[in-house]
Design a protein that fits this description.
This protein is 59% helix and 5% strand. It has 3 helices and 2 strands; from the N terminus they run H-H-E-E-H. Strands 1-2 form a two-stranded antiparallel ribbon. It is elongated and about 85 Å long. The mean pLDDT is 76.
Length: 111
């Protein structure tokens, strides 16, 4: 029974593909189908983005797709935390400070 849920839509799409192929030609139908598939997959694969850091200033745009009607309030955009979680940034900062401090001590001892 589960296989019928996959085979029935597939059969219907094959019929529709045959009609498209008869109307537009045997080569054009697969090319258009492939192109629409690439564009759709590309649009659905990108996460919702509003800001990208540019070279001189932030670039603002939105890749959000509203496929369903949401009720209630809008979600706030997630702030960009930087290159990693705050704990990781703090740990790396402390390690860099320790390395600078130890190199300063070593330079002072050698003099």
């Amino acid at each position: 029974m589960l296989a019928a849920f996959y085979s029935v839509p597939t059969s219907l799409f094959r019929i529709y593909g045959g009609v498209l192929s008869d109307r537009s030609g045997a080569r054009a139908a697969p090319y258009w189908t492939f192109g629409v598939g690439i564009v759709s997959t590309s649009m659905l694969s990108h996460p919702p983005t509003t800001i990208i850091d540019g070279i001189r200033k932030p670039i603002r745009f939105s890749t959000r797709l509203e496929l369903t009607k949401r009720g209630g309030r809008e979600r706030e955009p997630i702030p960009n935390p930087g290159p990693g979680p705050p704990q990781l940034q703090q740990r790396v900062h402390k390690q860099l400070q320790a390395e600078r401090h130890s190199s300063t001590r070593a330079a002072a001892r050698s003099q």
